[in-house]
Every structure is written in structure tokens, then in C-alpha cells.
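Fold this sequence, please.
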Amino acid sequence: MMSNTTSLSECLREWEELEKNYQQIHDTHRLYKQKLEEVAKLQDSCSGAIARQRKRLKELTRSLEECKENHPVPKLGPEEVDAIAEIKDCMKDRANAFSEMEAFLPKKNGLYLTLVLGNVNVTLLNKQAKFAYKDEYEKFKLVLTVILFVFSFTCRFLFSYRVLDALFNFLLVWYYCTLTIRESILISNGSRIKGWWVFHHYVSTFLSGVMLTWPEGALYQMFRNQFLSYSMYQSFVQFLQYYYQRGCLYRLRALGERHNMDLTVEGFQSWMWRGLTFLLPFLFFCHFWQLYNSIILFRMFQLPECKEWQVGMCCCSYMVLFMGNVFTTLGVVYQKYKNNQDKPKSL
């Protein structure tokens, strides 16, 4: 009986402590919601102020151009020219500063993210969350690259089943679709991947989808081994790129020469020059293999027994990939060469 009384008194004391803790949790949560409302108001205020400042800067830019064109004297004085140049330089710096600020402010999703996710806010509001998401994206690419290499090797040399080929192509479609979504989220959070390297994944998604729908037949078997061999080599090159580019980015970020949200990409960019010894030949070989695939598919398309529309679509897709990759890479090489020529040579 005494034991039951003691147990009951302990339970009552435990309940009192839980009540106190609950009240603290309730007060903390109320404070949390209050701070959230304050943060939301600050976000709206900051976004509106940036939009107004940009509008005024645009108007000021037009006014400066009009001053240069409509000035009563034939030429502006040196002091006035210097003042206009200084203002324009400050405007460029201001635009970069606004971009950095907006990376931590909610923004409307682009068309692609709106179609896929709706109007969900995908902006991560602290640096740790941004870096964690970027690192998870890089690990995702690395793991899937290894899986795709093993899968393509299995289909090429071990098992020749159309079902396995379909699973491999489905994995490619899912992989590239996932990359396009993740890259769009990263761009919304300040990553600087843009241009061709984003469009490249849309084309690759389309190409993988066409390969998935290509029915079994003589033409499919003609191209199958070449496609799987190309997929193996592409995965191998992407694996080399990942480790090489990660090392480059690590060194450049440590020196403060690269943005912390910059990514490894499936191609060649100017920051990759430092320490480059072997990667460029592998890249160009992969690009010209895409051209070779396009030529083979074009010849297949001209055969009288060709009835599948997938042949022509794959031919066009490989040609787009080849042209985009080669011209983008050559453009970066030329720009880097031009910048080196423009630098003053030391005596």
C-alpha cells in the first residue's frame, strides 16, 4: 500500500514537471511563430526595396545616357566623364550585391519549377542549408554515375535483354529529370550553373526518353551496342570530371576566386585551366563520339527498312549535343586564350 502511494506521488510530481515543460514549449512555439511573421515581413520589405532600387537604377541609367547624348557642349568634360564611369561601375557592383541578397530571399519559381512543383518556395534561407543541398547534389551525381556505368557494362557485356535495356533507359530518364529539378533549385539559391550546361540535361532527358520508347527490332540491335559503349565511356568521363573539378573548385574557393555555390559541370569551363593536364582530350573524344552516333543514326534513317521515328529523333539529339558541347568548349578555350593575350606581360 505504501509502495502504491509512493508511486502515485512520483507520478503526480512527474506530471507537474511535464506541465511546466509544456508551458515552456508553448511559449517558445508562440515566440517562434512571432519571429516567423517578423521574418516574413522583413523578407517582403527587403524584396520590395530591392525592386524599387533596381527600377530607380534603370531610370538613372537612361538619364545618364540622355545626358551624354543631349549635352549642350560637343563633348563632356573629363571630370563629368569620370563621374559617369564611376557611377556605372558602382551600378554593376550594386547589381551583384542585389543578386547575393536575393539568394537568401524567397522568389517566384521559374516556369519549369512551377510546372513541376507549383508555387512552393524552394529558397534555402541560410548558408549551411545551401551548402548541404549542393553537396548532396554532387554526391547524387557521383553515385548515379557509378551505377549507370555498372548498369551499362552489364547490359553491354553480360546480359542482352530488352527489359534490362528499358530499365537502363528509364534510369537515365529519371536521373536527368532529377538533375534538371535539382539544378533549378540550386540556381534559385545562388548557384551559377547556366546556359548550355542546363539545356544539355533537358536534351539528354529527351534523348533517353526516345531510347526508352524505341521498340525491339533490327535497327535497335544495330545501334544498341554502340549506345551502351558510349554510355559507359560517358559515365567514365563524368567520373573523371567530378574528381578533377572538385579539386579545382576546392583550391579556388580556398583562394576566394570562386563562389561557394559553384558546381562541377559536365563540360569544360574557364576555372578548370589550373592544373589541367589530361581531361580535355577525354572530353573532346566524348563530344566527337556524339557526332559519330549522329552520323550512324542518319545512315540508318536512310535505310528503306527504317520505320521507327526514334532513329531520326536520336540523330537530331546527338547532333544538338555535339554542336552545343563543342562550340561551348571551344568558346571557353578561346575566351581564356584571349584573356591571357590581353594580360600585360611581365618584363
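Residues 263-271 have pLDDT under 50 and may be disordered. The chain is about 80% helix and 0% strand.
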